[in-house]
Structure formats: C-alpha cells, structure tokens
Amino acid sequence: MSKTNAVRGTLLAMSALAVCHPATAGHVVNGNLESGNTLFSTEYSPTDYLCDGHGGPGTYLLATNPADVNCYGDWASFGDHTSGAGLMMIVDGAPHKDKVIWSETIKVKPDTAYVFRYWATSVNANGNGPAGVLQVYINGESVGGRFQMPYAFDGWHRVSVKWNSDSVTQATIWVVDANTSGGWNDFALDDFSLRSN
Do 18 and 8 form a contact (C-beta atoms < 8 A)? Predict the structure, then answer.
C-alpha cells in the first residue's frame, strides 16, 4: 500500500471519529489548549508524567512547564507560548513514522486561501539528539515543508503553511512527527490556528 493510500485510509478512519466544530468557519477550537484535553484528536496516548513507567514514546500531556513533568532533569524550564503560564502539549515522540500528534476537523469556506499556524519547540535542555520533524497534512495531503525541531530549547518557533480549500467545506488537519527516534524526540506544541488569508 502506498503512503498516500495509507494516509487516506487513516484520514477516513479518523474522520469517522472527528468532530466538526460548529464554531466560526475556519477557526480552531481550543487552539491554545487552555480548555484541556478536549476538542482535538490524537493517536498519542495521554499520560500524567513522563518518567519511570509513566509515559514514554508515543505519549503526551498538557502542562505548564516541561521541567515539572520529567524526572530525568534533562528538559528545559519554560512557559507556554500563549501567556507563559498556560497549558502546552508536551510530546514524547512516537517510534512510528507519521503518527498523528494533533488533529482537528474544521468547517471552511470553499475557494478560500488559508494559513494554518502553530508554535513548536524542543523541550530538551542539552541538545543531545534530534527532536521532532513535523509535517502538516490537510485532508490527507501533505502541506508545506517539514519543520526540523532544534536539538535543544531555544524559544518558540512559529510554523506556518498555506492551503487553499478549493471546493471542500471542511479541513481535517493533522500534525505528525516523521522522526522515529525514541531518544531526544521530545517537544512542545501550542497555539494552533487556521485563518483565511
């Protein structure tokens, strides 16, 4: 099975579970994650802590500071992108390529240009290995280039991709990690948005 067919198969399976939010067309609901573990989908498993039997590759949690949820002492201490004191999605990258980290299905206007944005950073304090390599998919097709996360935390990075809705009236957006390393593939995401251009 080709990668495109596999992605489309996953899109169909996820679309059956996804909720198309009735909010204003083109707007991500809970993009800043302050409403907690709700109104988005993921193939990652939630955890409450990333240490000794809790979490591990393929898990995530929402928290205010990576250093507070990792017992190894190798994650940087910093706040979320939104306010510096709110929630961010802290991810321990999966060893399976293209597993969906974050997804939402959103109503869109046909024949409209959009920009999807989110903020990302490595949570590693020492830069011993590569963090995530992130890719955006919309309706099963890759959009924009891959974003290589820095090896160590050096502030938040804005990632933007342009997309045209053509004739469709909804967009299922995925953020996936192409890095399959189990070590140092740790990062944070925040402030997802979709806006007409």
Answer: no
Amino acid at 72: Y
Range 77-85 contact pairs with CB under 8 angstroms and sequence separation of 24 or more: 77/125, 78/121, 78/153, 80/32, 80/33, 80/188, 80/190, 81/119, 81/156, 81/190, 81/191, 82/32, 82/34, 82/190, 82/191
SS3 14: helix
Average pLDDT score over the chain: 87
pLDDT band at residue 26, thresholds of 50, 70 and 90?
A: low
CATH class assigned to 3-196: mainly beta
- Maximum distance among all alpha carbons in the chain? 49
Domain assignments of the chain as residue spans, ordered by start: 3-196
3-state secondary structure (DSSP) of residue 2: coil
Please identify which residue in the block is written with the tokens 């590569």.
130
What is the pLDDT, as a whole number, of residue 4?
43
First to last CA, the chain: 35
Q: Does pTM surpass 0.90?
A: no
Cβ-proximal residues to 38 (8 Å cutoff; 6+ apart), any chain: 30
Report pLDDT for 24. Answer: 53
Residue 8 above 50 pLDDT?
no
